Amino acid sequence: MNIAVAQSGGPTCAINASLLGVIKEALKNPEIGVIYGSVNGIEGIINDRMIDLKSAIHTNEDMELLRQTPSTVLGSCRYKLPSLSENAEIYKTIADCFKKHDIRAFFYIGGNDSMDTVAKLSDYFAKTGDGIQVMGIPKTIDNDLCETDHTPGFGSAAKYVATSIQEITRDSSVYSIQSVTIIEVMGRHAGWLAASSCTLHANGETAPHLIYLPECEFDSERFLSDVAEQMKLHKAVIVVVSEGIKVEDDSCRSGKTDCFGHAYLSGVGKQLENLVGNRFGCKVRSIELNVMQRCSSHISSRTDIDESEQIGAAAVQAMLKGESGKMMRFRRILDMPYTVAIDPVDAHLVANNERFFPKKWINDKQNYVLDEAIPYFQPLMQGEQIIKMQNGLPVHYRLIGADSELVQK
Amino acid sequence: MNIAVAQSGGPTCAINASLLGVIKEALKNPEIGVIYGSVNGIEGIINDRMIDLKSAIHTNEDMELLRQTPSTVLGSCRYKLPSLSENAEIYKTIADCFKKHDIRAFFYIGGNDSMDTVAKLSDYFAKTGDGIQVMGIPKTIDNDLCETDHTPGFGSAAKYVATSIQEITRDSSVYSIQSVTIIEVMGRHAGWLAASSCTLHANGETAPHLIYLPECEFDSERFLSDVAEQMKLHKAVIVVVSEGIKVEDDSCRSGKTDCFGHAYLSGVGKQLENLVGNRFGCKVRSIELNVMQRCSSHISSRTDIDESEQIGAAAVQAMLKGESGKMMRFRRILDMPYTVAIDPVDAHLVANNERFFPKKWINDKQNYVLDEAIPYFQPLMQGEQIIKMQNGLPVHYRLIGADSELVQK
Question: Which of A64, B94, B109, B373 could form a disulfide with B361 if both were Cys (CB 3.0 to 4.6 A apart)?
Fold first, then answer.
């Protein structure tokens, strides 16, 4: 039997480690023949664009470099598989590709959209009786997948975010004048990543002084009075905010256009910067951690990378035991010493669902994360990867044939 | 005799290493008594706010942590010392502070403004016959100080910038659609930091595909045709731009106000993003590396940190040999194996002067940095620091009494 694996959705530091887990576990099992890597997620299956991964990745060094390379070496996609009733043809195309290459199992590494694909495809193959197994492997820096303690990629993103906020705190507090620094962190609906910055408090930092999450209602006046209160205590006030909070006066976002006629799409960081500057007239700066928070593998969490590889391997083991339509998930046994079990869960329960940051870990004023959350976050961020460097820069693995950097002729 | 040391200007990853160099060299010399740390640059001398560094920093671990802590543990200032004819009183205040504490030598770690202070103060003490020696120790991520091969702090900033651009390149190229990513790097007048991203080419990257520096005239139409050309070659075009380039159509910057009535201060990255989006309608994103490029000590260059410590020590040695009014500088002997000498140079030659990126290393089209520049940059970025971590995050050293994070009561 042959198998196929694909990567989908937004990049993370850990998604290639999960790919490596699939490859290494498959190599251990002689019944598995070709390991196909599908280029650009499920699109590679639909367009029959695949790479033989056994011949592409074959030295230990290839594997080590793959582990430390951010983003997706196989490329990604944002393709939403239509339902069978909407488009039966596409299911036929996928089945034909699997048949043509004798692919008996498909592994999809991705977020809740990808788990929707896993659920739909496994339902389809259960109906057709083809016996093709479909397995999901989670990933997202947002940590918002249901049914799992956390998601691969999150720990590394949290480590980068907390490390950068600590460094920004040092940077922001050098002058003797009052200042406010607003750091905008990814998370449209779930505030896990912004919330994880609370771990700095366990290392003796007073920053961040305020944390705003999309799980709470945001009120500009209350925000300004929170800032005023912190300004009495700290010369350099550090505010962390999820990109997804809703600033009620969103005149900045609605209707206004810039000088080129484009909608004025300032992020919330910039909006809050304007609010603070307007009210207090003090030095204020907003900082967007942007895509660096999902791709800075040079400071990835070893726990995250190790676990991401393990969960990829576990998906292959589960498939060999006959599972299909499942996503592998982490079940936490203990915070300390940190212990997790990996087991399968129905992908339908994960598909198109979101898991939010628990209210019990947010303070009453809804502007701070309680210390009770620290034991949850801390183990996910611990441990450092030894990164192979060349000329002072990390070495990245690039897969010939899948590299989307060059225009296809 | 006692000595004093202060840190000034914008933070870097290496300025505390230079402070450590001063302290360690002073400790070796029994004739040096108290080592005063002046809080918030020269302002600490003026306001007589100083810390006894020998009693504050006394274990090897303190010193190791100081080396790995970004920004300035003594705080900083942007104070421009007036000329003697403008304000003789301030010189008297400084002299009184030195006299009161028996300070016979003052070390100022900073950029060209600080070297102006070094020049003025040493001229003053030469005239008064007080015999107080004043020495400058360079620092700036901009690498724009005259009379030195490079500046402490630059190598670490360049390492962060190149590492991040490589990771952003991976992140930007996962989808099968055409995209343009514009990365804005610090450098108002000199493009050294943006230019240093050319080192990625030595590691097999085609990115960055275009590099724009403030040393060249910028033309929007030419820029758009450069981008169009690169789009034919690369699916994910990566553009690096110094914040200081002048976009001739600066309607975005002049006059326009946002919805709060503030001037619309978009950076050049955002301006170029708008230009590209408007013309090509493709996916386009601009990323500001912001203060992270000057404070990300978790990926600092060991060469930079080692040299920064050495140049601090060399300033003490030069002072003991009788020098005053000098800045210590690096003189490069060899690119490979990388060899530098450290010697003193007249601070007047550095004060209020700027050193630009050489035209000989810019291509004819003025949109790229030639490979000939790589041997200059590469050694400055090489080598990694082993960072002491706690709970998955770097440990920072904080100096009690100088920490500006708390409001002074």
Answer: B373
Between chain A and chain B, the number of residue pairs with CB atoms below 8 A apart is 254
Q: Which residue has the tokens 């502007």?
A: A367
Nearest CB to A277 within list B169, B262, B294: B262
Residues 197-226 (A) with a CB less than 8 A from some CB of B = 199-200, 202-204, 206-207
In this prediction, residues B95-106 reach a mean pLDDT of 98
A354: how many CB neighbours lie within 10 A of its CB? 14
Strand partners, A328: A344
pLDDT of residue A359 exceeding 70, the answer is: yes
Q: Which residues contact B24 (CB under 8 A, 6 or more apart)?
A: B63, B309, B313
Asked if B262 and A256 come within 8 Å (Cβ–Cβ), the reply is no
Task: Report the SS3 class of residue B123.
Answer: helix
Q: What is the ipTM of this complex?
A: 0.95
Residues in chain B with CB shorter than 8 Å from the CB of A199 are 391-393
Task: Provide the annotated active-site residues of A.
Answer: 142
Residue B55 identity (one-letter amino acid): S
DSSP class of residue B138?
A: E
* A390 chain-B contacts, CB cut-off 8 A: 203
| Confidence (pLDDT) at B408 | 47
> A-contacting residues of B 90-129, CB under 8 Å?
none
Helices and strands counted in chain A (H then E): 13, 13
Q: Is the pLDDT of residue B409 over 50?
A: no
Distance CA A396, CA A390 (A): 10
Q: Is A71 on the interface with B (CB under 8 A)?
A: yes
In chain B, domain spans: 2-140+299-351+386-394, 154-295
- The tens digit of pLDDT for each residue in B347-374 reads 999 999 999 999 999 999 999 999 999 9
To the question of domain A2-140+298-352+386-394 being in CATH 1.10.287.70, the answer is no
- How far, in Å, are A178, A240, A385, B312, B403 from residue A172 at the CA level? 10, 14, 28, 24, 11
Q: Decide whether B2-140+299-351+386-394 matches B154-295 in CATH topology.
A: yes
Nearest to A407 among B234, B277, B393 (CB): B234
Distance from CA of B71 to the nearest CA of A (A): 5
CB proximity under 8 Å: B 143-172 to A = 159, 162-164, 166-172
Cβ–Cβ below 8 Å for B396 and A170: yes
Residue A207 Cα distances to A114, A172, B159, B319, angstroms = 36, 11, 26, 39
Protein fold of B2-140+299-351+386-394: Rossmann fold (3.40.50)
Instruction: From the options 3.40.190.10, 3.20.20.70, 3.40.50.2300, 3.40.50.460, give the CATH code of A154-295.
Output: 3.40.50.460
Mean pLDDT of A61-65: 96
